[in-house]
Structures are given as C-alpha cells and as structure tokens.
C-alpha cells in the first residue's frame, strides 16, 4: 500500500487497521480515548472518553461534540478503538489498536468522518 506518509496500515474488509504511531505529543490518561477537531491533537477536544464509562463502550459523537469534525485521535486503552462513519456503530470504519495515536486521520481517508465509536476486545477489522 503506497501512502504519502509512511505508517504501517493494512486494508481489511471495510476498515483499516492502524498501527500506533510515534509522536511527540503527550499521551492522555491511561484508559482514555481522546478525539480532537484538528490535526496533531489541536483545536477543540471533542471527546475524552474513559474506558468502561458506558455499558457497551459505545459512544455517539453528537453534532455539538464533533460529529464529522474529528481529525486526530489517541487510544490509550487496552482495547481496539473503532471509529465509524455513521451513527449507531455502522458504516465505513477505521480500527486503531490499543495505544494508537493518529495525528492526522486524513492519512487514512477518514478525516472529518467519525460519527460514532466503540471499544472492542479484538480487532473487528480483521
């Protein structure tokens, strides 16, 4: 797979499996998923979700909290983070392994597309 930015990625089914990327940005708290409006973990911090905060670890990104506006993500949980292009954990998806930090979702064709997310024990994109 050829990309402008070289980051390990594997296309699987309807999603992408993304490897953790090294960045200079400080990690959020252990067990947190954090989503930002802009690249490189800047702009409004729309989602700061603590693992286990909801029954099924599923979150709807409401329009006032960054729906279709997410550009960078940190998954500091021990689970796979799945970002979905549609509400209700449906549609095109991107899967981020535990510990993944993605400074630019545009590298994966998923900038400003997330509408819902879920944490999963195993990789749902495999």
Topology:
Layout: E1 9-12, E2 15-18, E3 32-38, E4 42-50, E5 58-60, E6 72-75, E7 80-86, E8 90-96, E9 101-102, E10 116-120
Parallel strand pairs: 2-8
Antiparallel strand pairs: 1-2, 3-4, 3-6, 5-10, 6-9, 7-8, 7-10
Question: How would you describe this protein?
Answer:
The protein has a 6-stranded mixed beta sheet, with no helix packed on it. Strands 4-3-6-9 form a 4-stranded antiparallel beta sheet, with no helix packed on it. It is globular. It has one domain (9-99): Crystallins (Gamma-B Crystallin, domain 1). It starts with 8 loop residues before the first strand and ends in a 6-residue tail after the last strand. It has strands at residues 9-12, 15-18, 32-38, 42-50, 58-60, 72-75, 80-86, 90-96, 101-102, 116-120. The protein is mainly β and 126 residues long. The model is unreliable at 1-27 (pLDDT under 50). A hairpin with a 2-residue loop joins strand 1 (9-12) and strand 2. Helix content is 0%, strand content 41%.
């Amino acid at each position: 797979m050829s990309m402008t930015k070289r980051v390990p990625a594997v296309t699987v089914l309807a999603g992408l499996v993304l490897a953790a990327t090294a960045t200079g940005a400080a990690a959020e708290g252990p067990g947190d998923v954090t989503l930002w409006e802009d690249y490189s973990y800047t702009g409004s911090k729309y989602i700061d979700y603590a693992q286990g905060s909801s029954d099924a670890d599923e979150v709807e990104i409401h329009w006032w909290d960054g729906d279709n506006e997410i550009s960078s993500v940190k998954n500091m949980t021990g689970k796979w983070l799945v970002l979905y292009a549609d509400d209700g954990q449906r549609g095109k998806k991107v899967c981020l392994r535990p510990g993944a930090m993605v400074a630019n979702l545009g590298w994966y064709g998923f900038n400003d597309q997330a509408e819902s997310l879920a944490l999963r024990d195993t990789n749902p994109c495999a």
